[in-house]
Amino acid sequence: MKYDFDRKVDRKQTNDMKWHSEAVASYLHREIPEEMIPMWLADTDFACAPVIVEALERRVKKEIFGYCAPMKSFYQAVNYWQKMRFGWDVKAEWITYLPSVVAGINIAVRTFTEEGDGVIIQQPVYDPFATIVKNDNRKVVNNGLVIRDGRFAMNLEELEMLAACPENKMLVLCSPHNPTGRVWTKEELTAVAEICLKHNVMIVSDEIHGDIIYEGHRQYPILSLDERYEQNFIHLTAPGKTFNVAGLKGSISIIPNKDIRDAFVKTQTAMSLDVKNTFGIEAVIAAYSPEGAEWARQEVAYMQSNVDFLEEFVKENMPGASMIRPEGTFLGWLDLSGLGLGDEEIFKRVVLEAAVICVPGPWFGPGGEEHLRINVGCPRSMLKEAMERIRSVLYR
C-alpha cells in the first residue's frame, strides 16, 4: 500500500494544541494571528498510520476503559522493533512503560543525582532538558556543540574535562539531536560512552527521534554498542514522533541493570507517573509491527524529500541564511545570523507578521542565537507556503 502524505488533515477540528492560536499564544507569551501556519510543536501533520487507527477502533469497541497494564504482546512489540530496526535484543524485564520521554528524564535526574549536582547537556538542545535540571535544583552544565567540517559535532575534549568533575553526575544525550538533526556515528557514541564510564557519569539517552533517519546515516542505540553500557546507562524512546501519537502517552524506558531499573521505578511510582494509558499501550503494539514499519519507511522517505525542498529553497531564495542539512528527525535548524536582524526582529517578522510559528533558537540555549527550528513533518504544500511567507518578511 502506498500512503498519501500530501493529504491535509484539518486539525482545527480537534483539540490539538499545535493548531489553536490560544495554545500557541500561551506558549510564546504573544498574541498569535489566526491564519498561522504552525511549524513549532514537534509532532507531524500526517494522518496517523492506518494500523494504529484500526487498533484503536477495535479497542474502543470493547466498551470499557479501566486501568490497564502492558501484557506479553506489548513487550514482544518493543523487542521486535528494537531487533528489526537496530539489531538489539531487548529483554522484556528491561522495559518500563512511561507517559513520556521527558518524564523519564525527570525521573532519572531525581533518582540518580542530588540537589546541586551537575547534569551535562549539549546545547543548543531540546529546551526541556535545561528546564528539568533547573526545576530539580540541579546545575546545568553545557557541553556545547561545535561545527566541524560543515557538521555539528560533540566537543569530546571538553566533555572529558566536565565528566572528570566529581559533581557532574549525569549526561542527558539527545540522539538523534534536536534541533540540529545530527545522527551520531558509532564512533562518536562509543567515545562518549567510554568517557562517561571512565568518570562514573550516567548517560540518559533520549532516542525518541531514532526511527527518523535519512539515507546515508544509521541510528545506534548507545546501550546496544557494548554490554558494559547496558549495565550503566538508560535508554528512553517512544513511537510518539515517528507515528504522531504523543498524545496517547505511550513511551518506554529500557534499563538492563536491575538495580538501576528498580531505583528508577521506585521514583516513577513516588511521582505518580506509573499509571498506564489504555490507548497508549495499543498504539505501541500497533506501531511496532511490520505494517507500522512499512508506513514509517514511506513517511521517512517523504520527509527526506521535504528536507531536499527546504535545503534547496534556502539556497536559492534566502541569501545570508543557511541550514546544515539534518541527517535525521523532522526538524530543520535555520541559521539566519547572516541577515543581521537579531533574535527579536526575526521573531517579530516570522512569527508575528508572517504567522509562521517556529521555535526561536535561543530557547535551545547557547548556540541557538538567530536560529529558528522549523518542522518539516507536514504536507509539502504546507511547508512551501510557510517558506514563502518567511522569505517575504525577511527580505522585504
Automatic annotation (TrEMBL):
GO molecular function, one term: transaminase activity
SUPFAM superfamilies for the chain: PLP-dependent transferases
Entry's EC annotation: 4.4.1.13
Gene3D superfamilies: Aspartate Aminotransferase, domain 1 (3.90.1150.10), Type I PLP-dependent aspartate aminotransferase-like (Major domain) (3.40.640.10)
Xref: InterPro entries: Aminotransferase_I/II_large, C-S_lyase_PatB-like, Class-II_PLP-Dep_Aminotrans, PyrdxlP-dep_Trfase, PyrdxlP-dep_Trfase_major, PyrdxlP-dep_Trfase_small
Signal peptide region: none
Aminotransferase class I/classII large domain sequence ranges: 75-390
Cofactors: pyridoxal 5'-phosphate
Keywords: Aminotransferase, Lyase, Pyridoxal phosphate, Transferase
UniProt record similarity statement: Belongs to the class-II pyridoxal-phosphate-dependent aminotransferase family. MalY/PatB cystathionine beta-lyase subfamily.
Full protein name: cysteine-S-conjugate beta-lyase
Naturally occurring in which organism (per UniProt): Ruminococcus turbiniformis
High-level lineage: Bacteria, Bacillati, Bacillota, Clostridia, Eubacteriales
